[in-house]
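User: Can you predict the 3D structure of Cell surface spherulin 4-like protein, putative? Sequence below.
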Amino acid sequence: MKTTILSAACLVPFSAATDVLLPLYVYPLSGAWDAVYNAASAYPDVTFNVIVNPDSGPGAGQYPDSTTIPAINKLNSYPNVQTLGYVHTSYASQSVSKVESNVSVYAGWASYSESNIAVKGIFFDEAPNNDDPTSTDYMSNAASYARGLGLDCIIFNPGALTTATAYYDAADLIVNEEIAYSSYSKSSTVDVIPSQYRNQSAIILHDTPSGADISSLVSTIVGAGIAAFYATEDCCYNSITTSLLDSISSSLENA
Ligand SMILES: *[C@@H]1O[C@H](CO)[C@@H](O)[C@H](O)[C@H]1NC(C)=O
Ligand SMILES: *[C@@H]1O[C@H](CO)[C@@H](O)[C@H](O)[C@H]1NC(C)=O
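Assistant: Sure. Here are the predicted structure tokens for Cell surface spherulin 4-like protein, putative:
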């Protein structure tokens, strides 16, 4: 039981433990999301923040298609899964009206009555990380717009080190590094994130080789107080390697 609940913040705070942050950009045909369901079920103490992304955004319809609806409903049936909708901001150059209409379509999924396809928040991809007020205002307005529609878990993905306080005030979680596994090192990634921001920081590694030592990697990330982590063998989140997701989840559960 949490004793404090910050207003307008994620009900399950990202800072409570190191979570999984999983960009689930695979179309849910023929068992494509099974690895995620299985991990959520096998590792109940791990929170899986799962980003759904029908079409680089919510897609053209009011609701997702008839293949995606039952798949999101199933994700939402796990108490340790929080689903988030993908919106891209093109480094604060996307028109505000497009960003807001993307967000409002996701918010509208909560009113679909036949199944539970509600998302808990928004993952703003291609977020800026500079401290120019045009960029920080753009992102804080986007976050406020989403919170105003009840989407309280807000993630920014600049994919690179962010130090401007305004972004941490606006978002619950910031992806401070999205990088190939071979380019990752603790000293250039974890250690450069200011300590007060680590409990709002996520790290995502792509192109992870199959022999990677996930358990020691996860242990340094958890030890540094990083709020969320993910690694994929793929370049681009278009496939899930069951054994890798299992290693990440079991390392987090046992951390
Ligand atoms: C969502 O944003 C994209 C640009 O990222 C735009 O092409 C699309 O039309 C928007 N969708 C809605 C429903 O506004
Ligand atoms: C994150 O850690 C800082 C101390 O470094 C603390 O002041 C802050 O409340 C923590 N934030 C969250 C969301 O837990």
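DSSP finds seven helices and eight strands in the chain. The two ends are 20 Å apart (CA to CA).
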